[in-house]
Amino acid sequence: MTTRKWQVGVFSFFSILAALPVAAELSRLGDEAMARVAGQSGIYLSGDISINEMGGPVEDSYFGRCDDNGKKCGARFAYRLKESGGWMVLDDIRGSFAFEGLTLRIRTVDSGFGGDGELFNRDVLELGLPNTVRFSDVQFKIAASSTARPTDPGFQQTDIFSVEMQGEVIMEGNLLVFPTGSP
Fold it and tell me: Which residues lie across from 169 on neighbouring strands?
């Protein structure tokens, strides 16, 4: 009974709050007022991401569950460095990782880089690396492949090396992504 009375009391309290008049009003800012406004751009991200812990959504003669040693399991990321070249792939990606404090912002590079920044004088995307990234059973292969997908005709893949990660990695610094083309 005590719990029921408390729930009714909370409901009554919020009903009273909802009935109170709101006295907020939005108004348009003029050019002079906007000129005095200062702000910062940026995004702060935290996440916990799991990739194919048990296997992917496709199960056929090639792909299957991760506990089936006769099948391939995990995500695949393929990229081509030249239009007529072969493919580099991150293959059999699986596991989970968590991070806190990845930042994204726009930064102007107008000095530094041995004087080259003054010549560049443009905006870049700055990725602020998170302090600590936690890995749990992360696995992937770096390989060269003749096709983007293993199910494409003529598929041949050469695994270069395999990676397994467990634990924490401390990351410091920023990664700058420079635009290509003219401003």
Answer: 133
